[in-house]
C-alpha cells in the first residue's frame, strides 16, 4: 500500500516530471491537502478538516491521513495556505506537530486565523514558522518550487490561488474561487495574471469543481449586500442575522448597513466574535461604532438593534438554535422580531436548519432565507466562471479538484465543450500519485489516504469497526447478558436503546440464556463455548420474538 | 391530557358546531389522519404513516397516536381515503384492527393498494368493509356527514379531495393536490365543483401547504413526459430510470416512450412490481408489450432496453443502490449506460441519494437528474395554484394543512394577499380540537396526538427514552463495568463503539472502578451505592482521560 519513501530521481532519461499527490479534497469536498513532489523535494498545500457525514456517528471532525508525508518527512520543504477556511487550515493543529518544522506561507488574514487556532491548541508561535505573503508575492520552496500567490475572490478575504513553477512545467491552481465582479473589498480575481500564465504555457490546471453543475454565474457579494440592505430597511423590529462566521465581507456589509440604518450591532456567539476580533486586528473589519453587548441595548428601541449571531447551520449549541428553542440566557425572541439566514444549509445540515426555521415560525418571528429571499451567495464559481478560467489558462492537462465525482466529471465535461479543451483530463482521487511532464499525465501509483477521526481528545483511536458498532447500536440498541456461574448459575439482562422496560421479555431472555448455559455446563464445554452458545440462543430468540437484532454482549462470570 | 369521551351535544344554545381534530399531518408532512366530530358522531379521513427523521434512530416507520379514536370508538361512523400514498394509507394495517369495523370509502386504485397492503399484514378482505366510490360520488357517513368526492390531480391516479356537508356548515378539503392542466389521464382537477361550492358557501377550507413557499406553478406531468422523451431519444445505450413506485402516470408515460422508441421495458424492484401489478389489474396501467424479465434481454441491443427500477431515494436495498454499488445479482452497470433519476430526494435522504449519484459517476454511467434535467415535478401545487383554490372556494375560515409551520404560515400569508381573504385562519397542530360554526372558529382543547414508533415486530414499545439511549450510544458508544465481589472483588470492562481495543485504558478503568468498589465495601455501603460510586468514578475518569461520555452500564455480581 505505501509508496517507497526513497526519492524518485528523473534518472530514466525521460523529461523531468512532477508528482501531484492529493491527500484530501480530491473526489470530496473537505479536508483539503495536496502534496507536490519533484525529485527529492516535497511541498504541501493546505491542511484542512472535514465534518462527519451522518453515518460517522459521534465523530467531532475528520482530518486527512498523512502517512505519506510522515514517511517522507525529510523531503518536505514547505507549505502554503490558500485561505483561512476550516477545510483548508483546520487540520493544522493536528498535522503540523507531526511534521518537521517547515516554513508555512500565507496571507495576513489566513495566518491570523491560523495563529488563533494554534493557540487554542496550546501550540506557541515559536513552534511554527509562519511567513506572511502578499497576494502577488513569489516564494521559493526548496530548490525546485517557485510559488506565486494570486488573488482570487471567495467568501473570505485574502483568498489565494497560485502559480507553481517547477522544472517540469507550470501548474496553475485556482484554490477555492468565484469570479466576483463586485467583491466587497473591491479586489477582483487576478484574471490578467491567469491570462498571462496561459500565454506563457500552463501545463496543468487544478480548478475548483464545487459548482460545476450550476449553469451561469454565481451571485456577487454586492448583490447580496443590496438585497440585505433593502430587506433590513423594511423591517421595523429587532433584526437577528446569521451567516458563516468566516464570511468577513458579508458581516462587514451588514455592519455598514446597520450603521446607515441607525441600528447598533450586537455580536453573539464564540466563533463570530473570534473571526471579528482577528479581522479587526488585521484591518479586515472596520466598526463605525463599537459592538454593543446584549445587556447594553436596554435604552434602544427595537428598530435600533441588529444582532449578528452564530447558528446558520442549525448547530444545537449555537446562538440561533438557543434563541429558537427559548433557552438563550440573555435574549428571548418574540413576535415582531425578524431572523435572516444569510446562508444555505451545507449538505447534511438540512434537517437541523429546517427544525430551527420551523421553531422560529412557531414563535411568530418573521424568517427570511434563500431561495425566497436572495440573501446568500455561494463562494464558488458556476459554469461560466469555470469556463472563463479554463479559457484563460489554456492548460495542457486538467485536474478537476475540490469536488465529489459528480462535480469533477461535470467540470471535465464542461472543459471538453470549450474552444480549446485540455489535451487530457484526469478524474483523480485522494492518494493518487499523478505524474506530470510535458509528455505524460497519468496516475502511476497510490499512497495511503483517507480519514482520521477526531472524537473528544482522541485522534485516530476510532476506526470503522467502532463506527460500525455505533451504527448498529443506534439502530437496534444493546443487550448485555451476564451469566454468573456460582454458587448457582443465573443470568442477568440489561439493555439500552432496545425496547422499553419489559419484564416479561427480560424474563424470557434470562430463561433462554440460562438454558443454554446450563446445557453447556452439563456438557462440560469450555467457557468461551458456553458464552457463544448463550449468545446464539439469545440472538435467535430475540430475533424471533421482536424482529430485531440488538448488539448482544455476552459476559460470563466464573 | 385526554379528552372526555362523552358526546359533546350542541346543547349550549349556540349554533350547531363541528369539531376538526387533526391527529397527524398538521404541522408536519406525513402520517395524515383527521377526525371530524359532530355531536356523537365521528368520521375519519386517511390513516397514514411517516418515515423517521435522522434522530429517530433505528425506527422503521411512525404511525399516529389514535387514543382519541380508541376512547371514542363507539362514535366512529366511517372513514374516507383521499389517495393511495403511504402517508395517507400506510397506517391502516396498524390502525384498522384497533377500531370497530367501519365502512372505509375510497376510489378504485386507492382501495386496490389498501387491499394489497392489508393482505401483506394477513388482514383478510372480510375483516374490513372497503367501499369503492367514483370521484363524483356522494356518501353519507352516520347521520350528520355527507361526503362528496372531488377529483384533484396529484402524483398518483384516483386522487381525491372532498366536500363535507354537515349541519354546522360545509368543509372543503383539497387533499394533496396540484392543478395539473395536462394530467396524463386527461382528467383535470374539478375546479368547477370547487367554484360552485364557493358560491354556495364554504365555511372552512383545508388546503395542501407543502409548496406554499414556491412561487408560480408546479411543472405539469406532461412537461416531464416531454422532457423524458427528448432525453431518452438521445440516449444510445441502456436506460435505467427510477421514480416513486406510486407515480403510476410517470411510469406509464415512460412505458409509452419506451414503446415509441423501440425499447422493451424491464421492471425491477418489489414495490415497483407491486404498484404496476395493482395498477394493471384495475386498468390504470396499460402495457403495449409485456415487461421482460432481466434474463430475457439477452438478444436485444443496448438501445432496445429500458429498466424501470426502485431506488429514487437512495434506499440501501433498492435496485438502483445495488446497481450503483455493484452488488445486484443479475445486472451490472457499465460505461455507456444511462441512469435517469426522475425524482428529488425527500428531505433527509439527500446524503443517501448523493452517494448513489457519485457511485454512478464513478462507474462511468451518464446520470440525469433535476435540476439540471427537468425530469421530475412535484405532486403539490405552488403559490399560484394555492391561490386559485382559495379564490374559487372563498372560505370563511382557513386551515393550512399538510405542512410544517413554515409551510402553514406562508400559506396563511398567501391567503391574506388575495382579494377576498378568509375571515380567520388558524395555524393548528396535531391534537388540536378546532371548533367550527358559523360564528366561531377556534381551538377549544387538545387530545393526545403524536408518534407511535414501529420497529421490527414492535409497535409502540419504543419511546423517546429508548431513542435517547440510541442517540447517546451512537455518539459515544457504551461501556459496561461488571464488578464481581466474590471470592475477591474484581472488575471486568467491555465496550462497544467507544474506542479501539486499548488495553492500557481498559486497565486504568478497571483500576478506577475497583478502587471505588473496594472503598464502598470497606465503608459497608449498600450495593446500589457501591454501584453508583463505581459509575461516578469511571464517568469522571473517562471524561478526563478521553474527553468522552460513553453510555456507562455498571453491574454488580454479588
UniProtKB/TrEMBL annotation, chains A, B:
Enzyme Commission numbers on file: 3.1.-.-
Compartment(s) where it occurs, according to its Swiss-Prot or TrEMBL record: Cytoplasm
Transmembrane segments: none
Segments forming a coiled coil: none
Record text on cofactor binding: Binds 2 Zn(2+) ions per subunit. It is not clear if Zn(2+) or Mg(2+) is physiologically important.
GO cellular component: cytoplasm
GO molecular function per UniProt: 5'-3' RNA exonuclease activity; RNA binding; RNA endonuclease activity; zinc ion binding
Domain Metallo-beta-lactamase: 30-235
Catalytic residue list: 208 (proton donor), 380 (proton acceptor)
Cofactor: Zn(2+); Ca(2+)
Residues reported to bind substrate: 245-247, 376-380
InterPro entries per record: Metallo-B-lactamas, RibonucZ/Hydroxyglut_hydro, RMMBL, RNase_J, RNase_J_2, RNase_J_b_CASP, RNase_J_bac, RNase_J_C
Pfam families, alphabetized: Lactamase_B_2, RMMBL, RNase_J_b_CASP, RNase_J_C
Family of the protein in this entry: Belongs to the metallo-beta-lactamase superfamily. RNA-metabolizing metallo-beta-lactamase-like family. Bacterial RNase J subfamily.
NCBIfam families per the UniProt record, alphabetical: MG423
Function noted in UniProt: An RNase that has 5'-3' exonuclease and possibly endonuclease activity. Involved in maturation of rRNA and in some organisms also mRNA maturation and/or decay.
Subunit structure: Homodimer, may be a subunit of the RNA degradosome.
Name of the protein in question: Ribonuclease J
Species per Swiss-Prot/TrEMBL record: Deinococcus indicus
